Structure formats: structure tokens, C-alpha cells
Amino acid sequence: MKALWMWIAICAMAVGCGGGAVSGLVANAGADFSVAVGEAPKFDGCASAGSIVNYKWTIVTAPSGMAKDAGKVLREVNASCSFTLESEMGLQEVGEWVIQLEVRDAGGNTATDTVTVTVNP
User: Fold this and answer.
1) Can you give the residue ranges of every domain in the chain?
2) Half-sphere exposure of residue 38: CA atoms within 13 angstroms, side-chain side
3) Is the pTM of this model over 0.85?
4) How open is the CA angle 2-11-106, to the nearest 5 degrees?
5) Which helix (H) or strand (E) is 2 found in, with range?
6) What long-range pairs does 71-78 form, CB within 8 A, spacing at least 24?
7) CATH class of the domain at 24-120
8) Looking at the chain, which runs of residues are DSSP E strands?
9) 57 with 71: CB under 8 angstroms?
10) Which residue has the higher pLDDT, 11 or 32?
11) What is the helix (H) or strand (E) element at residue 3, kind and residue range?
């Protein structure tokens, strides 16, 4: 009986015996990379793990001339872990852009990771 209570206590501390923090959900936005102005960057979150139902890519920080773009969602999809940013939505300002990948599972659990894209002239 003592062992059962010990297991219940440990399980409860691990956020619900299989949910939440132990869901195995991991976001992986890929390695940092560089592109030239006008080049379409490709974002790849396919190394993320878990039962992912949604991928959301958001600008966290942008060069000073495009600071208003911080918070802008670049892409949110349920099926595709990678995409190439269309030229009309491209990262047109020289400098560093930090892009966040948020992955979500069916239980609403999320995990995040960032990638830095350096845009060169």
C-alpha cells in the first residue's frame, strides 16, 4: 500500500501521470541560417517530436527598420512541418530575425524553439 501511495505522489508531481510536462512534445526550429535579401528562406521544424497537431511560426524580433513585425505570425498549419516563405512575405530587411516555432499537441500542450535568420545584402 505504501508503494502505491509513493507512486501516486511521484506521478502527481510529474504533471498528471503522462500529460503535460511528460508529453514528450519537443519543438525543433532547426539550425540558424543566412539568406540574401529577396531570397526565400525555408523553415524546417520536422525534427520536432511528439504527437504534434499544429505548427506555428512567429517573428519574435526583427531588425530595427521592421520592428513592427515582431509578433507577426508567418505560418500556422496543422499538417506541414516545413515551408518556404513566399517572397511577398519575405524577410526583406538586412539584419537578424528571430523566428519562434511553437508546436501543439491534441491536449493543448505546447513547446517552443527559435531559429535566427541572418539576412545579408
Assistant:
1) 24-120
2) 1
3) no
4) 155
5) helix 2-13
6) 74/43, 74/99, 75/43, 78/53, 78/54
7) mainly beta
8) 33-36, 42-44, 52-61, 73-77, 82-84, 95-105, 110-120
9) no
10) 32
11) helix 2-13
